[in-house]
Amino acid sequence: MATPAVGEAAPPLSLHQPATAGKAPLGPSDAADAPVTSCPAASAASAAVVGRHGRLACYRAVVAIDTLAPGTSGSAPTVGPIVATWLGRVEYGVAHDLQRRLVAERADGRSGDRLLLLEHPAVLTLGRHADPGHILADPATLARRGIAVERVERGGEVTYHGPGQLVAYPIVRLSDRGLLIRPFVRALERAMATTCAGLGVTAGPRDGHPGCWCDPSGPVPRKIGALGLRVERGVSYHGIALNVTVDLADFDLIDPCGMPGLVSTSIARELGQEAGSDTASVERVAGRFAVALAAELGAGLVGP
């Protein structure tokens, strides 16, 4: 499969246009979790780890995905390119509202597939069923550091976002590209791994654990990329977070992805470089990721 070149600049995208639909309720009654394992045998498996208080805690080895409703069926559509847009540093709530608006437009057929590329100021996000006990910092500490906590409709446990981390939100109508959720997750994981490889870092998937990992089969795997999705009306949103030059000390505020003792890493750490909130480096990595994901999906690419 040929890798598409980064094409012309994407058209401007307003961050502040009012959403066409309100936020989905976060209660358990309106959606069902759709766990997807990285190997069929793991679908009923649990990964046992010892919690920070010495108690045994069990976490299903599943990909963090929530679904609300399938997309509409019909004649085969004409699929256009994915339009990738670099947005810079964006407050989490602003980006979330933008995703909601674009999901509604895509589901209604009023726009094409999009890939939003950005970084966030420091924030903790919790999936719809996430355990807030995995936030290790007390509210006073978070408030003093200006770190908000947001509960959203994706699957999965607590995740940290902050400067120096690439966040990518694919707004994709899966059926138009002949995609099921599991192959789409695999494409996102491979795109992260390809992006890392292009920068001299070896990474890949880890059986039973979503995201992208360094030394995934070793004694101490290191997580370099997180993944959590939501699919509504057949359209994906939320997405991935790839650590570029992020300050890894901030991950000490949480049990990343609900896994006590998990070791987080970054492209900078793996290359022996200094961490820092270098937005320019994140933008460069964003372009690599866009090309890698378009190649995985066999899609044309416009932007970023």
Reconstruct the topology from this structure.
Elements: E1 32-33, E2 46-50, E3 56-60, E4 65-67, E5 82-89, H1 92-107, E6 114-119, E7 123-126, H2 139-144, E8 148-151, E9 159-161, E10 165-171, H3 181-198, E11 204-206, E12 209-214, E13 222-232, E14 235-243, E15 263-264, H4 267-270, H5 279-297, E16 301-302
Parallel strand pairs: 4-13, 5-6, 5-16, 7-8, 13-15
Antiparallel strand pairs: 1-4, 2-3, 6-10, 7-9, 10-14, 11-12, 12-13, 13-14
Helix pairs in contact: 3-5
How does this structure look, described?
The chain is α/β, with parallel strands linked by helices and 304 residues long. The chain has a single domain (63-302), classed as Bira Bifunctional Protein, Domain 2 (BirA Bifunctional Protein, domain 2, 2-Layer Sandwich). The chain is 21% helix and 26% strand. The chain is built from five helices and 16 strands. It has helices at 92-107, 139-144, 181-198, 267-270, 279-297, and strands at residues 32-33, 46-50, 56-60, 65-67, 82-89, 114-119, 123-126, 148-151, 159-161, 165-171, 204-206, 209-214, 222-232, 235-243, 263-264, 301-302. The strands form three sheets. Strands 1, 4, 5, 6, 10, 11, 12, 13, 14, 15 and 16 form an eleven-stranded mixed beta sheet that branches. Helix 3 (181-198) packs across helix 5 (279-297). The longest helix is centred in the last third of the chain and has 19 residues, at 279-297. The two termini are 21 Å apart. Residues 1-8, 17-63 and 71-75 have low confidence and may be disordered.
